[in-house]
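Z., the sequence and structure:
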Amino acid sequence: MRSNTKNNFQKYILFIFFVLLFIQSGQAQSLDSLFSKLDFSGSVSFSQNYNDNILDYSPRDIDSLNSGVTQKTSDKYSISEPSDYITTIKAKGGIIAHWFKKNPTIFNIRLSHNFYGNSHIKNNTSWGIEFKQTVKRKNYVTVGLSGVPNNYLRNLKFRRPKKSIDQRYIEVFLNKRGYSFEVGREIVSNTIVDMQYNYFSTDYTTEFDERNNHSNEIVLEGRTKLSREIEISGAYLYDVTKANGSTAIPDSVRVSGVTKLKYRDDVSSTVHRGKIGIDFSFKQRFQLPLKWSTDFIYEKQEYNTTQSLNKYYGRKDSYVKIATEFSFRFEKNYELSLQYYWEENTNSQNISNDFGSYQTHQIGCSFEYHF
């Protein structure tokens, strides 16, 4: 063991030696030359939002929660009210390296944290790292890594151990990791098309490991400027999610002396999503640093379980989403924005708990400093 460690250490020293020799011999660019070709940029933002349904509860659950938590529902809800005020702090940093003449290399990193005024259990952090390389000016390749650790979902009904009919609700948290690869090209002036592949891995609280899943996404997107003021965009997403519950062996449960099979949740699904967006700039025509952006999104989700006794069998969900924003940029480095977001879900089963259809509204404002 020591011999292997010693050999690795010697290889490491030799590697450093040859790198230093290479640099010293003038075959590589000097550090001064490398740093002289770097540009740095970034931003810090602070936002305040109001969300009237932070956990996407159904109307029946909202009525139950608003009527007060009772002994019967004490383990079903870990929040005291469905709405909350959310404070978000975001930081972004980027390095643009001009090492390949007119083909810049871009490194980006972002970090975001949400603080919930009342429901502190919902506080969460997300992060992302991105590398982008331009090729022959009109083409680009992007690779990214992202994560959302320990994000509270809601309380779900749990039945364990096997052969037990005891039920209780427990708090469920998610850990999500994403990987992305994107290629794009400016096909004509002011018109860009790109294709993106995303892979996501999601882990649930241990008691719900049958919900652990991985997703494969393909995204096709295009955007073009119709004039100096108007830009439109469109996107289509296809997602296939495979969950552990699709292969889990059902539990045998004794109910009133009769043995029944209890299937674990299978959240495997297929998603189709379309988006149309429009951006309108007031700067060119009206000399105002004001921009208006709106996105219209429609999504169809179908659960793929083949187990007829599984509660997700045959379930289909439809989502309609509208997001709009007015942003005002002043003094070059400062930006003030107002946002509104609306989302509605309907499904084929329309049952309470995590099956219920829901509706949510969000409204907020943000201040961002660019440097």
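The first strand starts at residue 38 and ends at 51. The radius of gyration is 26 Å.

Let me know what you think.
H.
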